[in-house]
Specification:
alpha/beta, D-Maltodextrin-Binding Protein, domain 2, 2 domains, 20% strand
Amino acid sequence: MKLLISLVGCAVLLAGCGGALGPGVAGQTGPSVSPKPAASPSPSRPELLVATTTSTQDSGLLDVLIPDFEKKTGYKVKTSAVGTGAALAIGARGDADVVLVHAPSLELDFMKQGNGDRRLFVMHNDFIVVGPPSDPVKIKGKPVLDALKALAAAQAPFISRGDNSGTDVLEKSLWKQAGITPVKPWYVEAATGMGQTLQIASEKNAYTITDRSTYLSQKSHLQLDIVNGGDPPLLNYYHVITVSPTKFPKVNFAGANAFADYLVSPETQKLIASFGIDKFGQQLFFPDAGKSDPTG
């Protein structure tokens, strides 16, 4: 009887030890606890208004960056993709929290007027001249100013965006540098975005100036070839600008700074550098955060 009682006692003790260690886990000192998932970021003002140029949308870059930013920060972004002039006008009314644009002369005016708080160098790509595959004016490979002079002399059909966008500002500057004032009927202002301008030029067998990224993203639907590119005057610089909370107290300044910081972060700069390589076989944008800004 004493032996039986002793054996029962040992069995109870072993059962208790097994419960403390957990079922079948040797050396575990307490009950198994599943790790809690990381809490999602929860900004106090999650809605963020971003005004940007059409090239960031038409190229597909926004489709990569915005979801990544939202996932990492908890912000919900509403974008207005218009020409740079229109994007800056939205910011100048306080109707956007942050702008991502590519017209340095307009951007500097925006800052001088007190509309912006931070202006950061994000990336660059380049503009190109595109035209009919047959290149009837034979401007392929010429310096861009010589190419424009040849187009004007031949009165070759040319479609301009005509919308005060970054592309439009650059194009008008190039004509001025070439000493030419383009006129109708050969010069037509479409007053529309880059994607639509390319479609019109393709349909009209005309020339136009575009950013390389938008052209490559739509190339398969166009009857247009690159006839000029690579000249220094055709470099295209992008900046992010947070709208001034001093002038516009209602802007989401915390969200704007989060977006600006995201764009210039090392992880995002790598994302920008890799964008387009898998689909187009070449880099569409070149990251510039932290580099010397040639636009001032």
